[in-house]
Amino acid sequence: MARRFASVETVGRITVVTLNRPEVMNALHRAAHEELGEIFDAFAADPDQWVAILTGAGPRAFCTGYDLKALAAGETEGWGPGGFGGLARRFDCDKPIIAAVNGLALGGGFELALACDLVVAARGARFGLPECRAGLIPASGGLQRLTTQVGLKRAMAMIMTGDAITAEEAERFGLVNEVVEDGAVLEAAMDWARRVCRSSPLAVRAAKDTVAALMDPVEQSLSRQDERTAVRRLRASEDVREGPRAFAEKRPPVWKGY
């Protein structure tokens, strides 16, 4: 199948998925989400593929989230059942997925890394959830997963300020398994994948499936997120349109608070 926004390579039992929109720092629009959903559907269904690696094309970015310029141009935000990037709401995949973060992992891009089982980061990588600065919220599991993985105070500081952290800080917070030199991240991720493949694939999946039960509150919270009064108020506000518009026009947003 022809791919426009991501490339797929299989290396033995390992599937390497590369986000391929470097001209917009691998930000994803609706068509890219749909394509990635199909890619991860195929990976999950293929008995010969045991581990997936997700990375981004080019040295600048892993993924910088939803394409805000597409939103500002009138595109309706959306993705398939797998969630952002075909992955953020894929709670039923028991195969391990590794993020090879080669640059900026911001917004939905950070949420993709948070949804992976292992994360390898280049030394120059940065991680952050800047959505509140754009009048949005991290709606693809970032609120839930970050809080679960680093604790309330660290998570709220990152979420409310939108400030990014370095790869070394992410490793110290327990978000990253290994930090490597820039340019070496994919090979390091491949090494992790090969090591995982030395284990029984059925045992690995049974372990992941069992541990996934710990994430049930995350899934439940995410499924009810849009029912929250404050979230509904945000979705209906002028601010939720002002943020992407200001980003596209390269100016500071003018918030109204309603």
From TrEMBL:
MF GO annotations: enoyl-CoA hydratase activity
Taxonomic superkingdom: Bacteria
Region (Disordered): 225-258
Compositionally biased tracts (Basic and acidic residues): 225-252
GO biological process, one term: fatty acid beta-oxidation
Pfam families linked to this entry: ECH_1
InterPro entries assigned to the protein according to its UniProt record, in alphabetical order: ClpP/crotonase-like_dom_sf (IPR029045), Enoyl-CoA_hyd/isom_CS (IPR018376), Enoyl-CoA_hydra/iso (IPR001753), Enoyl-CoA_hydra_C (IPR014748)
Stored SUPFAM superfamilies: ClpP/crotonase
UniProt protein name: Enoyl-CoA hydratase
Lineage: Bacteria, Pseudomonadati, Pseudomonadota, Alphaproteobacteria, Hyphomicrobiales
